[in-house]
Specification:
Blueprint lengths: L1 H20 L5 E11 L2 E7 L2 E6 L17 E8 L8 E3 H19 L3 E9 L2 E5 L4 E5 L18 E10 L4 E5 L1 H17 L6 E9 L3 E5 L4 E5 L20 E10 L4 E5 L11 H4 L5 E10 L2 E7 L2 E6 L21 E10 L4 E5 L7 H8 L5 E10 L2 E5 L5 E5 L9 H4 L8 E10 L4 E5 L7 H5 L8 E10 L2 E6 L2 E6 L20 E10 L4 E5 H16 L8 H14 L1
Parallel strand pairs: 13-15, 18-20, 23-25
Antiparallel strand pairs: 1-2, 1-4, 2-3, 4-5, 6-7, 6-9, 7-8, 9-10, 11-12, 11-14, 12-13, 14-15, 16-17, 16-19, 17-18, 19-20, 21-22, 21-24, 22-23, 24-25, 26-27, 26-29, 27-28, 29-30
GO molecular function, one term: structural constituent of ribosome
Pfam families: S1
Organism: Cereibacter changlensis JA139
Amino acid sequence: MCAKASMEEFEALLNESLEIDTPQEGSVVKGRVIAVEAGQAIIDVGYKMEGRVDLKEFADLSGAVEIAVGDEVEVYLDRVENARGEAVISRDKAKREEAWDRLEKAYANETRVDGAIFGRVKGGFTVDLGGAVAFLPGSQVDVRPVRDAGPLMGMKQPFQILKMDRRRGNIVVSRRAILEESRAEQRAEVISNLTEGQTVDGVVKNITEYGAFVDLGGVDGLLHVTDMAWRRVNHPSEILSIGETVKVQVIKINKETHRISLGMKQLQSDPWDAVEKAYPISSVHKGRVTNITDYGAFVELEAGVEGLVHVSEMSWTKKNVHPGKIVSTSQEVDVMVLEIDSAKRRVSLGLKQTMRNPWEVFAENNPVGSAIEGEVKNITEFGLFVGLENDIDGMVHLSDLSWDQRGEDAIQNYRKGDTVKAAVTEVDIDKERISLSIKALGDDTFTDAVDGVKRGSIITCNVTAIEEGGIEVDYNGMKSFIRRSDLSRDRADQRPERFQVGDKVDARVTNVDSKTRRLGLSIKAREIAEEKEAVEQFGSSDSGASLGDILGAALKGIDRN
């Protein structure tokens, strides 16, 4: 039993010794250079084993090889023995294994690693991390797009590992993360030394449509276009250029986002402080049109002070036109100050107020009753619009077109572009209305014809037409119509056919209508009136005399007279 135990112990010790003395394939071992020949270095890795490594595997980034006999190096043992009885070793693999171990620790600890960009590939660059090759995406080279990466090639610099997979041999790094971190530290330091309201010098780095970015020495601030000047600035390039040094004031600092708002106009006096004193209400000033919109035009009174001329205040006569057809950009105009709101920094201006109201001028030059001449501008269902001086219009209503014709008929005699004469009948300055009358310039035939005629008068007319419903008669050129029921007191005589054209008839005036220009006539009313008058003169119904006797006596009295 003792002999057997001793043999087992001896065998275990032998195996342990062999394991210790024989290096494991696939591991990194130390060796010593014993010779350099034929472009190779012969390395003794111990254990009575030697191997060969090409000198290029010892080259640095510049391609230089520095190795000599006696140098100790680490190599990767692929196989213990090849066909020639030599160990198969590699310096590149040893460096790669060493690098991966080191990089995995750095990745786990989120620490930076040093490397150098040595090549360009699709989508980015290759980076040597001291034995391991990593991929640097183009977007991770710098905080801003880099057009020329030449100056960065071969330069040793720090990188941040974003992703690594040892099994696949993939490593992705970022130079941008390092720059952003440094930039953030620098920004934090610069921002800590800034205070709101402080005046600093900066350099214009970039210009956009909405403002400019100014470098304050490691941190950028935004100078918005509205904070560049008190006046309107259409584009920052009007007053700034890239590379220019400017003096700005720190308006606001956001400690969380590290955003800085800057201003230039805050270093100048605010022109609005003296606006109310410089531009009293109703005063007239010269200004320059800076902007035109659908609702009006902005006029600059001085640098930093603009007012709006609303479209309703631009012209007395042009009501529905675009402001661009009245004024143009950069045009100098006279404007009147209508209202000032200093709190809202608004000035309301008027353009038309600097010119006389054309309706007032017309009223002065053309009093009611005066005759004017103008061109028919428009024809509507209710009258004519006639163009007058200073681009204003007057209206002739249908009822003011003719004495003799209905308005609907009379308006058919006019065409757009005709020149007409009319009389001024009314001027309403507040409502901007002028009323005209064409018929007022002609004779009123109706008034002349019925002059002295009133209701109850007896007039003699000429029969001009016989109709079924009555007869048409003429009195001094005025046509009237006597209805069948008014032709006689007796129903049997209410027959139009008993009259002939040319007959003269006496009729009583029952109505004088100047509006419709018609006389109301009745033969029946005349007969009743005559009967009543006869009764009053020659008897009454109580005396016992018959109506025939009374009328006979009345007729004899008329004959004697």
